[in-house]
Input
Amino acid sequence: MQNILVIDDDIYIGDMLEETLKAEGYGVSRAYSGTEALLVLGQNKPDLVLLDLMLPGLSGEELLPKIKDIPVIVVSAKVDVSDKVALLMSGASDYVTKPFNISELMARIAVQLRKSQASGESNSLTFSDLTLHCDTLTAVAGGEEVRLTRTECAILKLLMQNPNTPVGRTTILDKISLDTPDCTERSLKQHISNMRKKLEAVSGKDYIEAVYGIGFKMRG
Output
């Protein structure tokens, strides 16, 4: 099931959207302010965001640049062309003006989800509240961005691709050898230790555990 986050402080509009989206087979989560939206995004990554601009606390314009690798459809009463252009340039995938036709909005949602699915998200992996962006060598843990080395990124990618299975040290070295020739049997443990510390420093969580006699796995 694809999940959509509705960020809107208008309870009537939010309820209407939630009811319609659920009828279409989507999962729905809600946030009523920009600050609350950041907390929700830090816990679970939705497949698409519907974003109102006039939000209490953190505005939609301020929130938009903080939403990474998720299609965002702005749903706003602002009709000025310059506003639309600025938001699309800031990362919005689409812009729908209030009041909107619900059938049109559902069609636009379907289009953005198809585009996202077609791209395969091959450069991004998600585990719990941890998202890895291989193309930029960054991870987002607990809503905070962390820079990784190429070796750390390669190791984390392999572990996240096999989240429920311990990956042996030899397997790790073999799988990442082409991309990271600097990683050796002796340095592997240090690379993983450095990465764990980086992620734990921003999230308070240790995402990786050592499996005695085997290797490493994502901490369930």
Remarks:
- Helices lie at 11-23, 34-43, 60-63, 81-89, 102-119, 150-161, 169-176, 185-203.
- The domain at 124-218 is CATH 1.10.10.10 (Arc Repressor Mutant, subunit A).
- The mean pLDDT is 89.
